[in-house]
Amino acid sequence: MGLNGCCSCVKYLMVLINILFWLIGLTIVITSVWMLTDPTFMLSMTQSYNHYHIALYVFLAIGILITLGAFFGCCGVCRESQFLLVSFFCVILIVMVAQIAAGAWAFHNKDKLDDIVRAAVKSSVQEEYGQSTMSSRTVTFDTLQKNLKCCGADGPGDWATSRFNNVDRTNIVEIAVSSMNVFYNIPESCCKDNLKDNECELSRRLKFGGPLNHAIYQQGCVDKLIEIIYENWVTIFAVTAAVILLELLSLTFALSLCCAVRNQHYKA
């Protein structure tokens, strides 16, 4: 004998919520796999390779858990199974706690995250860009600079002490002294769009400490990334809050249905 009345409405709502979870989970899984397999994905510039891949594997695990939870939820509702409903409750509870913990940690360590991102992007500019063993990093940073309309980590001046200009970075003091009154090159991706013939080529050669050419982007990529995050902060917060609210609602529905199924079994 199936559930009826209010419980029947809750069942339909649970199915709808689990379809949404299924879509969210699949989106996370597909995005994670794409980011893992695409070496030119721009977010890889914000941290070291090891940290980047660890974060993606965690992201992938959350996506798999959400998809699995949605499967348990749908099957539990359709079969009116206490075991599957409890499994759904446990999986979604784990995901929700992980989300809240990650959000709290990120908020508490936002200054450290800023430093980590800045250091990682600067390292890519000065240590990795243009190196034959780091071709994917070069392509990624070119894409980043073109799309965000920025140049270097903190600005075009970062390229003066970069390996891209064949600078030996084993002695930072010597770099600072020897870089005075010399010229250095910046990547073509620092040039603004729609420039005239050879204008980009001529603008790419800069004097250390001299004025910057208006044909190249002036803002650093780290500041640009942070600016984009702050501009979309309300949207990010609203989406996160909506997902957590949906998870709380699904947990409440799952417990209600579980109790209803148990009471029905007792009556039977």
TrEMBL record:
GO terms for cellular component: plasma membrane. InterPro entries: Tetraspanin/Peripherin, Tetraspanin_animals, Tetraspanin_EC2_sf. The keyword rRNA processing does not apply. It holds the Pfam family Tetraspanin. The keyword Ubl conjugation does not apply. It is a multi-pass membrane protein. The chain crosses the membrane at residues 12-34, 54-76, 83-107, 233-261. Gene3D superfamilies: Tetraspanin. It is found in: Membrane. Keywords: Membrane, Transmembrane, Transmembrane helix. Belongs to the tetraspanin (TM4SF) family. PANTHER family: RE08073P-RELATED, TETRASPANIN. This is Tetraspanin. It comes from Drosophila gunungcola (fruit fly).
